[in-house]
Specification:
By secondary structure, this protein is α/β, with parallel strands linked by helices. The chain contains 14 helices and eight strands.
């Protein structure tokens, strides 16, 4: 079911959709190509498959073990805010990845909200680029509160198998999300969806981000596996504990490797941060995730699928602790 009020169509449009002159634009063509490109090339996949013929492959078992935590029952709605200090750190990738993993492994509804002030791409990453904005959904909830999951689904935009509910980019001139309408939307979502992931704008001082954190049971801080990104992780983790409003929300740092040939390994740097007393995990480079288009879990590298399942399980465990 689509949203009752659609956002303005975006320039990258649906894959394969022609522009008024009858041709695909370059962004449309690239999106169509990249959204189906697997993380691992044909040669690597062939070698891996051939190797499994001669040895036992315990990958399905390891994946099931990693995914078990993401399927844990949730008694009351849990809200997770994904934040970051720099653009390009992987915030939206993490928010879309978490939402995709949860919705693929659960039968109940999962919501991902684009809470960035403007220009967010969460709806694109979840495959519904024309999803109505959080502002529109919040206004509708204030006018007519949903009385069932079906009512809520009609206000948001279903993606994936239909149990992932999405809001699109916010208007450039809209009011901050820290208002009664957005709070009413958050409460309505938590009533019917056990997990809500909020993709916040860059920086922790934005009113919309502060509001999201005040509503959340866990903050996920995305940072790059780089000198600047790792320095940010240390500085922000320290500042987090000194801010009474933030310290009340548990913080998990996710070190994201967004370059295939970068000098830092995400998992190694996450372990180093952990030794410093900072709760951290790593997410390695994945060509499919780095493409910046719809996330398809089946196109991720095998290693990334394990990391994503373990990450989703760890996030949910922390949010429900």
């Amino acid at each position: 079911m689509s949203s009752p009020v659609n956002a303005e169509p975006l320039p990258y449009g649906a894959p394969g959709t022609a522009t008024p002159d009858g041709f695909e634009s370059t962004p449309q063509r690239l999106r169509r190509t990249l959204r189906t490109r697997p993380a691992e090339g044909l040669l690597r996949r062939s070698v891996s498959s051939a190797g499994n013929l001669f040895r036992g492959d315990d990958y399905p078992h390891r994946l099931a073990e990693a995914a078990a935590g993401a399927q844990a029952p949730v008694s009351t709605g849990r809200r997770i805010a994904v934040v970051g200090s720099r653009g390009g750190a992987g915030k939206t990738t993490l928010a879309a990845l978490l939402g995709s993993v949860y919705s693929s492994m659960r039968t109940d509804a999962v919501t991902v909200l684009d809470n960035a002030p403007s220009g967010g791409t969460l709806a694109l990453r979840t495959g519904v680029p024309d999803a109505a904005s959080l502002d529109i959904a919040a206004a509708e909830v204030s006018r007519r509160p949903p009385t069932s999951l079906a009512d809520l689904s009609a206000l948001l935009t279903p993606a994936g198998r239909g149990n992932l509910l999405v809001t699109g980019r916010r208007g450039t001139g809209g009011r901050p999300a820290a208002d009664d309408a957005a709070k009413a939307l958050s409460l309505a979502i938590s009533r019917y969806c056990p997990i809500t992931v909020m993709d916040c704008g860059t920086g922790l001082d934005l009113p919309s981000t502060r509001w999201a954190l005040s509503q959340s049971h866990l903050a996920v801080f995305a940072t790059t596996a780089s000198v600047a990104g790792l320095e940010d992780a240390g500085l922000y983790a320290t500042a987090w504990q000194r801010d009474p409003a933030l310290a009340a929300v548990p913080l998990l740092v996710v070190v994201v490797r967004n370059q295939p040939d970068g000098p830092f390994r995400a998992d190694a740097e996450a372990r180093r941060l952990t030794r410093m007393g900072i709760d951290a995990v790593g997410l390695g480079y994945d060509r499919h995730l780095a493409a910046g288009v719809e996330i398809s879990l089946g196109l991720l590298a095998r290693r990334t699928r394990l990391e994503a399942a373990a990450l989703a399980a760890g996030v949910l465990a922390r949010a429900t602790a």
